[in-house]
Amino acid sequence: MINLENCKNVLMNFTATITKYGIVAKLFHWTIALILIFQIPFGFYLVDLDFSQERVDLEQYHALGGIIILYITILRLIWKLMTPSVLGNDAFPFQKLIAKLSHGSMYLAVFLITTSGALKKMYMGEDVNFIFFQTNFGLNNFGLSDLFYEIHIYANYFLIALIALHILAVIFHHVVLQDKILKKML
Fold first, then answer.
1. Distances (CA, A) of 41 to 45, 160, 184
2. Which tens digits make up the pLDDT trace of 132-155?
3. By CB neighbour count within 10 A (0-12 exposed, 13-18 middle, 19+ buried), where does 154 fall?
4. What is the pLDDT of residues 57-96, one digit of tens each?
5. 163: CB partners within 8 A, 6+ apart
């Protein structure tokens, strides 16, 4: 016989509550963080490589990592819209505003990075692997490719700054406010 209370408890572990993030939100958060730990330095490594077949091959892996981050971020945003905020009602209104702005900025940076990277490749006339399909629009506009490359680079710097602020905010919450926000995400 199925115990409805046990089913409810299992479901509660998957979704966020006011006191903690659910398993799904944690998986999205830490998966993206782990991929970015490799993806960002890998991108800087690629910039320093001379043009060669090796660089082209390595860029394919970098682009694939970016597309994976894009898909996970879209799923994470959908999930976030369906689950309650962990900040709860005891957070200051300004704190809620800053949290929304910083998270929104991180999502914006991820979308800018991934779309500009894909558009850079498209305007170079290269194939872009979107996992579920691969495309080459035959676009050859090196001026636009360079523009999207610049956006890609600056959006990465923006994301790095946001990640640094995010980590500092977590430390501030943990040490100064002692509100256990870190424990909620672990």
1. 6, 11, 28
2. 887 777 778 899 999 999 999 999
3. middle
4. 899 999 999 999 999 999 999 988 887 666 656 667 888 8
5. 36, 106
